[in-house]
Amino acid sequence: MFRYHYKLYFSIFLLFVLQNNILAHHSRSYFSEDIYEIEGELVEFSWSNPHIRFKLSGLDDSGQPTVWDIEAGSIYMLQRTGLSKDLFEIGSKMRFAGRISNINPADVLATNVLLQDGTEVIIIPTAQPRWPNSNIGGLDQWQDGLSELSKAKAENKGIFRVWSIPDPRASEYRSYYLPFKEEAILARQGWDPVNNWATRCVPPGMPSTMNMNPHPIEFTDRGDIIELFLEENAILRTIHLDRDLEDEDQPYSPLGFSSGYWEDRNTLIVETSRIDFPNFDRDGTPQSKNITIYETFTVSDDQSRLSYKMIINEPLIFTDNATVDIYWLALGEHIEPSICTPNI
């Protein structure tokens, strides 16, 4: 039996979190691994979620007229690297580098674009510069916002604030232990990379909504409940603090039923069950209604950092409890709901 263990830090962000966020409409297998270049005239542009999109009119390798449908990074991630929609002008000539779809050669996941004025724009943050030109974007221009951290203790908000991701290159930003069973990996063969909940802009359920989310999150105190709002897909989780509520009396739903309690003044413990969502990830790994999630949120003493640990009990797909470790920072950002919109 194969055991797939992932204890990764920087690399897991590059290969798992960002790619799954970028490929919100498609699984990774939808695109080839090879990088190609295409050029033409920009005829349509959409600065929208889950990722920005372009339509480029040009000639394919055989000289036939083609309109490519090109997707790139999410608005939030691109803004953190200093990019804005004003860079892209309809009618201008552009050259894109990216991965071509294995199913539809007119679909492209672009990493870099060369503008008409010769400026290279890195449109997936983890990509490297490709051409010998001046370039903008990319992780080298990440806006870390660390100057805001010193304000957190004085504000004394505890967990109840907006929490943002750090520089993705930060040590131990995310780590995963996912001991998939062989049959769970094989079950992905039944996943349709073109027609699935992600391509239809259906928000993910638990636990994927937490473990593949590189956008800000916000906690709000509502008395007997705590609301956890996730910017990506504008998802609202409700954490019930009333310990008299019985899990088995609650309906099944994509986010499940979450109950919580304060272990101490800085640590929130949450248990989530009654989850009804078909897949663990955007690669089509199945999950059952028996899945249970245990979460620990811990605010640092200076209130500048929120550490998170998720333990996933799902015997259908794992040989052992899976774990996810993440942290966020108090960077003073505001939530801007990111709603998935269908392809232009």
Strand content range:
25-35%
How many discrete structural domains? 2
Quick one: biggest sheet?
10 strands, mixed
State the end-to-end CA separation.
43 Å
Question: Number of helix segments?
Answer: 5
The SSE order reads HEEEHEEEEHEEHHEEEEEEEE
Describe this protein's structure:
With 344 residues, the chain is mainly β. The protein has two domains: 31-140, OB fold (Dihydrolipoamide Acetyltransferase, E2P), CATH 2.40.50.140; 145-329, no CATH class. Helices cover 10% and strands 32% of the residues. The chain is built from five helices and 17 strands. The chain has helices at 10-22, 75-80, 152-155, 182-187, 208-211; strands at 36-46, 53-59, 65-71, 93-100, 107-114, 120-122, 135-137, 162-163, 174-177, 217-221, 225-230, 235-240, 257-264, 267-273, 292-299, 305-313, 322-329. The chain has a ten-stranded mixed β-sheet. Strand 13 and strand 14 form a beta hairpin. The chain is globular, with a radius of gyration of 21 Å.
